[in-house]
Design brief:
The protein is built from nine helices and no strands. With 200 residues, the protein is an all-alpha fold. The N terminus is likely disordered.
Amino acid sequence: MAEPGGVSVDRELWVRLADADDAALTELYRRHCDAVYNFAFRRTASWAAAEDVVQATFTSLWRRARVGTVDELRAESARAVLLVMAGHECANVARSARRQRLLHGRLEADAGGAVSADHAASTAARVDDEQRMSEVRRALSLIPVVQREAVELVVWSHCSMAEAAGALGVPVGTVKSRLHRARQSLTNLIEIEALKEALS
C-alpha cells in the first residue's frame, strides 16, 4: 500500500502507533476495518461476531502500543498482520458467544420460552448469509489450519503472497504450497457454489 514517492503510509502509521499515537490507530482503523470485518465474518459466519472481532482486534493493537510491544511492520501494508491478529480474536469471540448462548438459553427457559422475533427483510438476508458462510466454514474445517489461513489471507482478503508470508512468519514458497494444497483438498471435498467462487 505504497503512496506516490514510494512512501508506505501504513509503515509510517505503524511507527507512530508504536509510539502510542492514537491518531495513527484511528487512521489504520479507517484504512483496514472493512478488511478485518469481512475476514472476521468469513471466519465466524456471524455479522455480530465480526463486529466484535473488529473492536477486539484494534483494542488489542492499541493495548500493545500502550505497553510498547508493537512488532515492526515488515510489509508495506498492515493488512495481513491485522488479519492474523483478527484470527486470534475470532477464537476469543467464539468462546464468549458460546457463553452468551448458554446464558440466553437459560433466560429463555426461565421466561417460558418467549422469544421476540424480528422479521425484517434485512435480518432474514443476514441470517441467509450466515447460514451460507457456516456451510463454507464447515468445509474449511476439514483442511489443516495452515492451509485455511492461506485461503483466508490470499484468496479472500487479497493479501499478496509476500504479505501473507510475512504475517505468518513463513517463506513465500510455503504460502504458495499451502494454498495449492488447500485448493486441491477443497475441490475434492465440497460442491458449495460460494466456496468454488471464492477459490476461483
